[in-house]
Structure formats: C-alpha cells, structure tokens
Amino acid sequence: MGPEIVAYPFLFLAIFFESFILVTFLSKPARRARGRVASSETPSVAIIVPCLNESATVAATCESLLALEYPAEKLSVILVDNGSTDTTPEVMARFKDHPQVTLLLEKNRGKHLAVNAGIATTTADIVGCLDADSFVEPGALREMVGCFENLQVGATTAAMSVHRPRNILQHMQNAEYIYGIVLRHSMSTVNGIHVTPGPFSLYRRETVVRLGGFRAAYQTEDLEMCLRLQKAGYLIEHAPHARVYTKAPHTLFALLKQRTRWTSGFLRNMFNYRGMIGNRRYGALGMIVLPIAFPAMLGGITMFFASLLLFGTSVVHAYQIRDGIPFSYAYLPHAPAFDWFYIPSSVYLLLVAVTIIGMLTLIALGKRISKTPGSLLQGMISYLLLYSLIAPLWLMRSTVDVAIGKKRAWR
Amino acid sequence: MSLTARNALIALGITVLIVGTIAYAIQYLDRQRIAEISAIEDQIAIDTLSLETQFSLLASAPCESATSTELIAEFSDLGERLSYTESQLGSNNAQVIQLKKQYTLLEIRDYLATKQLAAACGLKPVTVLYFYSNAGDCTTCDRAGYTLSYLHDTYPALRVYSFDYHLDLGALKTLISIAKVKEEFPAFIVNGTTSYDFISLEDLESRFPKGALSTTTVSH
User: Counting beta carbons within 10 angstroms of the beta carbon of residue A343, is it exposed (0 to 12), middle (13 to 18) or buried (19 or more)?
Assistant: First the structure.
C-alpha cells in the first residue's frame, strides 16, 4: 500500500456525493422542476447592481437587465456605486434619464451596505442582485420569478456560466460553473443550496428586510444570506433555464484571490452557523452538503499531496533506473502489442476514473438542462488537467488565513 | 422517509456497489494474471523437460536446441510478467512467492541444461546469474535489473537468470552456496565470474568477456 491509501475515504465520499446529485437529479421533483415553464405572473422586481470600479462592464450589465423580457413598469434597475475610484459613476450617469434606472452613489463601506441601500429605495416584491461584471439572458427573469409562487421560497438562483471564456483557466472555471448548475438544480429539490451567488439571485424583498438585510459576512454576504434564509426556514430555489454569464478571473493570481475570499468566507460563516452542521432540521443542507464540505476540502489538499508524492516518486524512480541507458530504448515508445496483462489496474486508479467520469457526466448534464451555448470540450479538458492542481492552493491558503485570522482585501 | 434520506440511501448503495465491483474486478484481473503466469510456467516446464528427455534419449546433446532463442524469449516474457505481478500484488503475496519459486526452479534447470549443452556442442553462450534483494538492502537493484533487460533486448541470445537472493528455496540456496555468492547486492555471475555492485551500463558491459555481447546475437 502506498500513499494512495489516504485517498480512499475521500474518493468514497466523492462518489457518494456524485451519486446523491445524480439520484436526486433523476427524482420526480427534480424532473418536475426542470419541466417548469416560465411564469406568466409578473410581480414587481428591482435588480440591484452594486458597482466598485466596474467601469468596463457596468454599462453592458445594465443594458442586459434592461433587455429582460419583462414588463417595463414592473422592472427597475438600481445601480449603486460603492465608492468607485475609476470612471464607474460617469458610466452609470449615462442611464440617469432612463425611466427604469435609479442611480445611487454610496461611500465604500462594503458590498452588503450597497445592496441594502438599493433595497431601501424600492418597494418591489422581489429584489435581485447582479454583480456588475455579469450579464443576463433576456428570458432569465421570467424563468426565475415563477419560483416565488411558492410562498415558502425566500430566494432563487440562476444557471451561471463564464462569459466568453478565452484562456485555459476561464474554460476550467466554465466547466466548474456548469457543474454548479446541476449541483444547485439537484440540491434545490431537497433544499440543500448553501449560497445564492452574486451573479443574479432573486430574493423576496419582504423576507430579506424581515431578516435584517445583508451583512458584511467576511466578504461573502451572498453565502451568509442564503444560510440565514435556510436557518429561518425558507426554501432556496433554482431556475436551471435562467442563464446568466459572469466574467471569470483570467490569471492564476486573480483566481486564487477570488477563491481564497470565497473559501475563507465559507469557513468563517460556517463557524457562525455551526449549529446547522449535522442538524437534521436542515435536511440535505444540514446532513449532507455542509458536513461533506469539510472532508471535501481536506480531501482536496490530501489527495493533492498524495498524488504529488506518488507521481513524483514514480517519475524520479523511472528516471533513476533509466540512467545511462540509451535514450531510444529508455524513453521512446516501443510500439508494444496490446496485452491485457499490463493494463494498469488498481482500486485507486479505478476509483479516480469513476469519480472523473461522474464529474464529467454531471457537467454534461448541467450544460444540457441549462442549454448553455458553446462547446464544453475545452472546459472539460482544462478542468481535468488543472482543477485538482489549482484548487488545493486556494484551499490551503484560505485554511491558513482562517487559522491565523488573516483578512485580505476584496481585490 | 424523506426524499433526502431516500436519495442518500440509494446513493450509498450505488457507492458501495461501485467500490465492491471495482474491488472484485481487480481481484479477478489479478487471479487471471496469476493463472496466465502459471500457464506459461507449465509450458516452460514442459519445454525444459522435453530438452532434458531429448538429451537422455539420444545419449548425446540435441545441439540444434541449444541455439534456439525461443526458450530464452519465453523466460524473458515470464520474468517480466512475474515482475509486474509482484509490483501489483506485493512481494509478500503468497501466490507471488509460489510462482517465483517455480520460476526460479525453471531458471536453474535451464541454466544447468544450457551448461551441459554448451559443453557437449562446443558452444560459448553468455550467461548472467543476477542476484537481487527485495528486502530493502539494495538501492541499485532496480537500475541493475532494467539495465539487464536492456542488454537482453539488445542481445537476444544473452541468457539472464534473475534470482531473489532471499527466496526460501532449497535449490536456490544450494546454487548460492556452490557459487559462493555473498550477501551483497546486486551480485552478478557472468560466465562463471562473480562480481558485486552496479555502477553503470558501461561498467556492467566491461564484466562480459571481450566481444561476447557482439557475438551473442542469434539470427532466427
């Protein structure tokens, strides 16, 4: 037995979790949710766009909102500048005469206060949040508002993917986001969603106000609000046909920074909401999603080091034993005839293969149910090649940050 | 039962089924590998016995058999399979040890038959007896083994016999005793001359009789 033995419990958990998503995906309530048609109801909706130095994208974000297929008199857009130091206020000013748009200029006191300021100016039934680097498809809102016909629903999330992925990192994130679609779709069936992402989530305004609005929550106010809604007994829905696209970090450093913020925010919020972990009252969220998150993080780090050790020792050993042997014999392929005897086979390899196949299946399902356009081939390849190498970096960084109490700037 | 509990139970069942199927499949493959090695050993045993019987029947050496590379190739193939299986199942696996003992016996018998045939037919085959250890006391054995594989693939008539020094087998202990092989690894006996340690390919080649490697290639 080598270092791979430490990976077995994590692989078992990974296969269990993937199976759970798949079984839930195939269940009747999930099938019914997928078959739900866009609502004909049109409650009043206000979409709040908090902006901090988003001059490059905020105009397109606002235009995508104004292009939503929704009665103009029922839809308003609130652009909240959160103390930008670039030309964001000037870009926002282009919309000052638009009858559906309200402009607010705030000091930079945190995203949560910018959103709360927006909520305070509206009496709409539904309030939405859209990050200023995200863009909605015209039919998205109609797909989502129908979820609020159930009065127990406190929030609804959309089907998020990466806006025009260009490099390998963005393709990797695109595959991950699309996996998130099927994950949230399945989890919404058993009320197991733990975050209502910034790129387009809708909330029942009255509920948010009753719960005291958004909080700072370690720069992950969307996650905290979702947990608070869950704790208060509300349901979190998901609209898999409501497509929204968001800009994804294109450099490794930016990605690490973003994910460290998300992960450390999750860990810190989980400390505040630790009573939900393993609590049967919170169903799938309390018994499966939150408890599995911790071994999943530990597994990501452990498997990273175990694989590194396995791969490293194999490469070094292979190099050492070939030392001094002619290159053509030692390193060039010999075109061997196929022989089943030498097929690499071990419990570890096959478990990893099953986990990968499960993940690729879920990504493909996410794309299928959301009808997200574009090819996923590059996304899947980059996800397979990079994710398990990069994710442990932010997992370790955020774990250390939380352990030593280090706080980082948003950007 | 709630939908969550029902789905979790089904997912758990699927997971156990997948893990169980994988474990069974691996065991099945390992059993098949063992069976294949066993079948090859049986075949080699028959070939070796046939050679020895021919020798006895004719009361002289069947010299055309002495230059055949078929048996050498069979040995090489068997050795590689056994080595791969050992790496998969571990050197402490009872079946692996049993197969290694049979393989070692076949090697010794072939080595003796080769010596007899060479003497009777006036041939000068190049043979290497290679003694290694899996007990963690040989840091260069993997390199030495790979280098011998390279030499054998390059010079197909070269007869390489590999022995696990610590294998608990009477015939092997006798061979070690007769050849006076010390417990130092790796150990090589090239055409009767014993040497120890492994430094490089060039160093190993220098232990072969001059010109031996270039003349050991046999056309099929």
Answer: exposed
Interface residues of chain B, partner chain A, Cβ below 8 Å: 2-4, 7-8, 10-12, 14-15, 18-19, 22-23, 25-26, 29, 33, 36, 81, 84, 88, 142-143, 145-147, 150, 153-154, 200-202
Whole-number Cα distances in Å, B32 to A151, B35, B81: 61, 5, 12
Nearest to B18 among A325, A329, A354 (CB): A354
Q: What percent of chain B has pLDDT over 90?
A: 51
- pLDDT, residue A63, reads 97
Give per-residue pLDDT as tens, A189-232. 999 999 999 899 999 999 999 999 999 888 899 999 999 999 99
Sheet holding B159-164, edge to edge: B159-164, B127-132, B187-190, B193-196
Q: Taking 90 as the threshold, does the pLDDT of residue B125 lie above it?
A: no
Cα(A283)–Cα(A189) distance, rounded to whole angstroms? Answer: 11
Complete DSSP assignment for A181-221:
HHHHHHHHHTT------SEEEEEEHHHHHHTTS---GGG-H
Q: Provide the ipTM.
A: 0.90
Question: Contact, A50 vs A80, CB < 8 A?
Answer: yes
Q: Is A219 left (phi over 0), alpha (psi -120 to 50) or beta?
A: left
The H or E element containing residue A243 is strand A235-246
- A69 DSSP 8-state letter: S
Instruction: Among A8, A22, A23, pick the best mutation site for testing chain B contact (most B Cβ within 10 A).
Output: A23
AA letter at A232: A
Hey, is A135 helix, strand or coil?
strand
Q: What is the pLDDT of residue B59?
A: 60
A167 phi and psi, to 5 degrees?
-95, 175
Residues 6+ apart with CB under 8 A from A392: A300, A301, A303, A304, A305
CB contact under 8 A, B146 and A23: no
- Which two structure tokens, joined as six digits, stand for A257? 């920074």
- Pairing between β-strand A235-246 and β-strand A134-136 as defined by DSSP bridges: antiparallel
Question: B8 and A20 in contact by Cβ < 8 A?
Answer: yes
User: pLDDT at residue A4 above 80?
Assistant: no
